[in-house]
Amino acid sequence: MISNYEEYGWNSSLSISLKDKLKEDMKNSMRSKQNDVRDAIRIVIGEYPKLTVPITLESGKKTTKVKTFEDITDEDVTELIRNLHKSEKTVLEIKNEKESDYLLILSRYLPVMKTKEEISAWIDENINFDELNNPMQAMKEIMKHFGKLADGNIVKDLLNKR
User: Fold this and answer.
1) Of 28, 46, 83, 135, which one's alpha carbon is 20 to 30 angstroms from that of 159?
2) Nearest-CA neighbor of 116 among 144, 162, 149, 141?
3) pLDDT band per the 50, 70, 90 thresholds, residue 3
């Protein structure tokens, strides 16, 4: 298993959108003959038709249409990659394996999850537990702040220890 994927990946601090970075990385992987990277990116791009927007036809019937490339957001692509990542983890679990090149490549395009320490530090700075009846009441505010960058189970464990 090769883990030499440093040149590939994305994060929100880059000045390029995720979908454009994927396109660029696909070209680079084809030039450098890294077929595993190329194939992983092709799978992600192949998922784009699943991104739809609701529309109402003249007859009043509600349906959906596929988003155009210009309409696809970083959040849309991140969600696709997250779903593919989760699916690959499930497959590896069934096969009793820990990692695959595909999983490593997908991980390079996902935002970095917040650590338990980062979440705990934010909670200490921003949540006043004296105003709450139960520490779990802070869950909504914490998850709203971190969004999908925090594992809800970690937040729950931190709150249960208070």
Assistant:
1) 83
2) 149
3) low
pLDDT per position as a tens digit, 119-161? 888 888 888 888 888 888 888 888 888 888 888 888 888 888 8
The span from the CA of 85 to the CA of 93, in Å, is 12
In the chain, DSSP assigns E strands to 52-56, 62-66
74, burial (CB in 10 Å: exposed 0-12, middle 13-18, buried 19+)? middle
Q: Give, to the nearest 10 degrees, the angle between helix 74-94 and helix 18-31.
A: 60
* Residues 6 or more apart in contact with residue 20 via CB below 8 angstroms: none
Smallest CA-to-CA distance from 151 within 110, 108, 92, 98 is with 110
Dist. CA 13–CA 106, nearest whole Å:
18
Structure tokens at 108: 């390079």
Q: At residue 34, what are phi and psi to the nearest 5 degrees?
A: -95, 85
Q: Which residues of 139-162 are buried (b: 16+ CB within 10 A; e: fewer)?
A: eeebbeebeeebbeebbeebbeee
Strand, coil or helix: 57: coil
CA–CA dist 40, 49 (Å, integer): 16
Domain ranges of the chain: 18-107, 116-160
